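Figure S7 source data.
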Amino acid sequence: MAWYRKITIKTPDELKIMRAAGKINAEALQAAYKMIRPGVTTADINAAAEEVLRKYGVTSPFMNYPGPYPYPASTNVSINDELVHGIPGKRKVKNGDIVSVDCGTTYEGFVADSAFTAPAGEVSPEAMRLLKVTEQALYAGIEKMRAGNRVGDVSYAVQQYAEKHGYYVTREYTGHGVGRVMHEGPQVPNYGIPGRGVELQPGMVIALEPMILVGTERTRVCPDEWTVVTEDGSLCCHWEHSVAVTENGPLILTRLENGESPAQIAGQPGVEQV
Ligand code: MG
Ligand code: MG
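Tokens for the predicted magnesium ion complex:
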């Protein structure tokens, strides 16, 4: 799974375009978030996000993403033990499910990539705790996205936050640089060693994405060849923001116009606002 993709440094003008892409992506995710309730299908949730992308005349880099076969939708919608890459379809959301939506937007040649996990109806306290811890693990990592820090500092922050709450982090899927393509360097795992790895510089943009599992760090891919599930069937959770490293600290690009995240479960700690 080693990646040797290029790391790109964005100019201030490019970051403005990426922020615009991020706002559209956030609006699409917010529409998906509002759609989540028992009885809707995962296709309905995808359609809500796609309607926003269509309104802006933009597309998702997820559509036709190369894999075992071209990915067939603009979002991933993954439920309960599905970690990532769930394909929207006829599956109905049930009361007590936790539903993850991951969406990408390509706008004027730049990509935004972000995800959340939300409760449908009444979920168990255990599931709600997982949602909150994963969201907070994302912010713990973002807090370390400062020039001069290294990728290992960010990865370690995510890992520590998850593990101190008794959870596992995935070893098989990672965050990544993002820019003109969805997956650039550097890879940003959800585990790491402080002080190691690529040094962060102003103008780098990273899609940081904690993927946190309750019972195991191991996953498998379903027969549809895309959907990734926990090997033991336990719950898992995924949150993601595309974040720029700036002279003034981390800048979350995939927030709404008003600076809020498209979905908020645990609330937003004091990271740099747009
Ligand atoms: Mg994503
Ligand atoms: Mg991503």
